[in-house]
Amino acid sequence: MLAVLLLAACGREASPPPPLRPTLTAVVGASDARDVHAYAGEVRSRIEQPLAFRIGGKLAERLVDAGAVVRPGQVLARLDPVDAGLAAQAAEAQRRLADADLRRYRELREQNFVSQAAVDARQTAFDAAAAQAGLARNQSAYTELRAEQPGVVGQALAEAGQVVAAGQAVFRIARLDTPEVAIAIPEGRLPEARRAETVEVSLWAEPERRYRGRLREVAAVADPASRTYAARVAILDADERIGFGMSANVRFLADAGAGRIAVPPAALFQQDGRPAVWLVGADATVSLRPVEVARYRADAVELAAGLAAGERIVVAGVHKLSPGEKIRVAEAAPTGGER
Rounded to an integer, what distance in angstroms lies between the CA atom of residue 25 and that of residue 301? Predict the structure, then answer.
């Protein structure tokens, strides 16, 4: 009986080993990626000044239209000067009358016909009349509205024949030498925007042309509806191709941990609550390697320690492996690189 069993065992072939698990792996490398966040905005001037008459009246003529380039001192509009002119003439007449009255009382004082108090009263009346005449002359000069700085007329807000009040804006003048882009930054992206090492501005009309930018201003309070912060990006090397109101694109770029090892998020494995990766040995066996995470990005995880460039790790199916298991290596693109 024993001989029969031995002969049967010898007749059976040994069962083949189980096939190796095909596993996606990649060689890790140092990251040279850059964070890039882009926002659409509108080109505006840093200084947009409303211009208004200092007195009210009927707008007699408007000399410039929207889009006109103006220079300092240029007359932009005029009010009907008749009323202001008549007021100036009346005030001047009162000044002359007070002057004549004062001279007469001084002569009478020299002859002791009037008291010094009477002369002082006439002096006070003359001073008041002279001040009123000067004020009326100024009011008459205010019928002309002049540009105070070089710029372009962004808006013309009144038409000839319209009655305008003192202080009512007639034009909005934008400075030509201070172009910037108005954008809205989500609250979650604000720290990255502040840390950005490079800011690029491009026009939608000419996307191939890039301008240097600088984040100049961020609102202190977020918009309650959109939860975004209004921000202004100054254009440092603007040229004549940039026009106010044009659509623009702003890109914030920052070195995202250049020199660090970056691995795909799917490569991380939790070992006792701590991050680790599966390291692939020269014989295609895997072992766990604890790592230290420096930063989580949307598409990668930057490591502060634990891996060296050139080592091969498993980048998919990490929860199906066990230490010492031998795998069939499948290649993936190297980790790291530019996004």
Answer: 16
